[in-house]
Design a protein that fits this description.
70 residues; mainly alpha; 0% strand
């Protein structure tokens, strides 16, 4: 049961790789566009998540957290 997340990730990676292989056979240009857009979306989500985590950390460090005033 502990290895279920690893199996799920590997299964999803296989599905994604198969989809990309079939898309590559259909159109290399479309495959490139899909990969570029996917990379951009992941980068934007990563930067946004990092910024949010930094803002929350600074907010807590200044003592604005409700639990810190008790």
């Amino acid at each position: 049961m502990n290895k279920l997340p690893v199996a799920a990730v590997l299964f999803m990676a296989g599905i994604i790789a198969n989809c990309l292989r079939e898309l590559m056979e259909y159109s290399p240009a479309l495959t490139h566009a899909v990969l570029v857009v996917g990379t951009g979306v992941c980068l934007a989500l990563g930067v946004g998540l990092y910024a949010f985590a930094e803002i929350v950390a600074r907010y807590k460090m200044r003592g604005h957290d409700k639990g810190a005033k008790q």
